[in-house]
Write a structure and sequence with these properties.
By secondary structure, the chain is of the alpha+beta class. It contains 13 helices and 28 strands. The structure holds MU-OXO-diiron and calcium ion (3 copies). The site of one calcium ion has 4 residues, from loops.
Amino acid sequence: MSSNLKNELSADEWDEVNFPRAEENEFDRVVERAISRRGFLGGVLAFGSGAAVMGTGVLGLSASEAKASVSRFAFKPIPTYTDATVHVPEGYSWKVMASWGDPIIEGAEPFDDEIGGSAASADKVFGENTDGMESFEYQGKHLLAINHEYANRAINLPQNENGTPQSAEDVLKLQNLQGVVVVEVSQDDDGWNVVKNSPFNRRITHITPIALAGPAAGHPLLQTAADPAGTLALGTLNNCGSGKTPWGTYLTCEENFNGYFGATETPPVARMAGVDAGYQRYGINEVGFLYDYHKFDERFDITQNPNEPHRAGWVVEIDPTDPTSTPVKRTALGRFKHENAELVIAEDGRVVVYMGDDERGEFMYRFVSNGVYTPGQPTDGLLDNGTLYAAKFNDDQTGEWLALTPETTGMSEAEILIFSRMAGSAVGATTMDRPEWVSANPKAVEAYCCLTNNKNRGVKPNAGGDDTSVNGPNPRETNKYGQIVRWRPHNKDHAADTFDWDLYVMAGNPEVHEDLRAGSDNVNAGNMFNSPDGMAFDETGLVWIQTDGDDSNEGDFAGMGNNQMLVGDPVTGEIARFMTGPKGCEVTGLAWSADRRSMFVGIQHPGGTWPDNGGKLPRSSVIVIERDDKGVIG
Ligand code: FEO
Ligand code: CA
Ligand code: CA
Ligand code: CA
């Protein structure tokens, strides 16, 4: 090949021309083993001597007992829908509990169906685009902490052409509608409602002061003119998934923070060494996602404040019981496009946090604390001192957590945390198909991660140049449907550095495709879906799966309908559809009441004008689902 031709091809294209993959190879057989129910979910073949762990260790059921048992799902699965409302099974009902714009704090204006309310009132109302959510019981009160992930400019500034901000006030309105809300909720004859003006109600926005803690706090890369110490940031950005600590705090995860930054000069002024590479890897550029904050709020102008983007992309800890508390960005958990943070306590009491970086070809991470958690004892420093790891999945269905240290990466401790993606690349972590939520099974020592889809798989490398050819847990090129990988730590210890893995499900369309795109054996015409994203285990060990995918119901997605929530049995592999959302929405965020008789579910970016189908603006909302007989759900 001439050097000219090489220059015209991407690294992957050049590789494909020069080293074409064989028609069938050992890798295809790995995939076959990884997705076959017979070989895997039944636990008979794939794990060899580990079969006992798979077949009898989980939930105390042997493979044959699991097969013989009746379905654990207490409902009749529902079909797909393509309409503008929510559907739940027979014997269940739903209602809207809170919607964008609902007044929750003293002084808030009522919702304005023309423009959605003023900038000044936007931090006193239920915010926009609900996402991650957790429940807390405190002094006999029921609190919910809920993320407000992003703003829809055209919906939140409907008076402006394309919703483009024209003033500092427009920007302030968007900044105030996002972040986090803490609300007290209570139940009466009318079901669950937000307690308006409760002293616990609180909005945390793109402006709220938030401390930076952990090893990267105070580093020169986190210092700005407004905060020369580099220890107090303003705002939490793009709050996606969530987590909860056993000591009663909420974890909110900053995902696509890059989109809020822009530059007033092109190219931006010269920056510190290393910053440009970070901008490139994290997608920080002159225009962002067209929020135009930088034109009216200089903090978001990377020309003037090149370090401000380093102060976002973290996991933030919030005490939902104290509305005066300062939230804390925990830098020890790394900086990337955090989806959620699933916290489990290891055998020896150390705190383990599993986290995904939702970008095509990026990595999965784990934090293990140095200290141990002892109920009732102080927890200071537990999330500030420890080791960050990135996941490596081998094709033989084993894997290991690779420690990100100065020795393994050649980076300083602070650099590892601020530029975790580069640290992951340095150790050769496995490129993944957009890791979304991680959830751990409370009934078994195992965890699951939704890998939502990845059109770049096998097409081009990630932004760091890492190869993204198909690999064990990411077995399909241009992956349209997504899959859920699960791993079982060795020695039944979440702090162990090695694990076994399989695919719990590979989503697909068996009506349209016969190859790998048909999905795994536990996917059929009656339960198919695409793009698994939100996920949470209930206390009985069933896994609830929410989707954020293509709801066109056509072509490759024919028969899948609107985005939905399904429930899976980890032992049998059975998956059933429980709920469908209104057209255009994503179903994301899930929490239960303390008595588990009510389920809170988030509906993000609904289409049309749901839930008031006679209104003028669609309103992201949290709904409550209950059984008509008031029985326990999950
Ligand atoms: Fe905010 Fe990756 O979802
Ligand atoms: Ca998500
Ligand atoms: Ca998603
Ligand atoms: Ca979303």
